[in-house]
């Protein structure tokens, strides 16, 4: 059989790379395997060659791949743990990359975790799949010609964003195609739940990495016509008349154990303006509605809405509140199982609208347990947001932070998608297309993490659905921004 594949993989001296090497060489399609590491390994197997590499994910490492790839196809295995190929997996990679004309193909895989074998399907790549943490699995199969063309377009030297930059460059001229078949098994050493992983990108120790990822994504947006300059619509806060300056909005369904605390958190607010609390009870069946009614009977501040519709998600409940005539000038988020950090939160949020002349304000929150004790990662402030580039970087990250607050006339025009995941992110992206989003970097909000949270521990199928939806939101927004730039003659 013709040897048409070059393989590249990072190695560590104290980890088993012989298993992966033997797997690859057993197929008779692999010409050579390149082992990439800082120090030369002992006992390099036959048909293997060492490439000195300080950081496997750097631009220099990617360039080394391009320099040494002399076969029609390249397999890049990005892990150091053992890889086990499925039956005729490499043949399948070759056939599909040729049949589709893709620049890179990837596949579903099996995951060996704690000695258990689990199926791990991945999701289709789309134009808005700009997340640097998009999960392709660990086996990336490139057409060498597409890989080298991507490398030729490099304009920055990255320590961490090399492979991210590569797939963005390749995606500009080729598709990245998912094969919905389980073609290999990889070993997963990170056994944390999904809810524990989702904040990794805001960990301060990863800040240098995130700066590079932002730079690579921003350059990609400039090259594809989706970049927006820091030019924003002017907001006129006195354009409409409102009885209330602000409304806190709580969509809720079956949160009898936490809704009382949330209500008290609002009623304790001290402000210089008139505000109310709009609670949209989405047909609770656990006594939540009775608790709301009890408080509504004691306070004129509380508006209790039970929608006539039975098909509303969290976003639909938000729209119901915002479109209500009693909604204030600013609509401020509070989830039914969370709390404001003190009595001054609402005043600080409204002040930020006027001070920063923005259509949306995003605050900072602290993660706590059911007893309100701080738990990792602690304070989430999303400092990656900057006034100049925040709305571009928003297409790369998977959320904007909390608490979120909106200038009601703008949100009434956009409306919130009727879904129960990503609805706030979708609204925020749409707003940021034309308007500035303000930020408050001091903690305003206690976000309870407990087993009942919707994102505490999400299985692979549901997580894939969530990520597919957010990628679709980004695709829609990216297309809208490209169209906006074309209309303005900026691309």
Describe this structure in words.
The two termini are 48 Å apart. Strand 6 and strand 7 (116-120) form a beta hairpin. This protein has helices at residues 18-25, 59-68, 89-100, 144-152, 162-171, 194-197, 207-224, 259-267, 288-296, 314-323, 345-356, 390-393, 408-414, 423-432, 460-487, and strands at residues 5-10, 30-37, 48-52, 73-77, 83-85, 104-113, 116-120, 139-143, 176-187, 246-252, 275-281, 302-305, 330-333, 339-340, 360-368, 374-380, 404-407, 437-448. With 491 residues, it is α/β, with parallel strands linked by helices.
What would the average pLDDT be, to the nearest integer? 94
Under the CATH scheme, the architecture of the largest domain is Alpha-Beta Complex
| Strand runs, count | 18
How many DSSP H or I helices?
15
Largest sheet: 9 strands, mixed
Question: How would you sum up this structure in a few lines?
Answer:
By secondary structure, this protein is of the alpha/beta class.
Q: What keyword list fits this structure?
A:
15 helices, 491 residues, 9-stranded mixed β-sheet, alpha/beta, 23% strand, Spore Coat Polysaccharide Biosynthesis Protein SpsA, Chain A, 2 domains
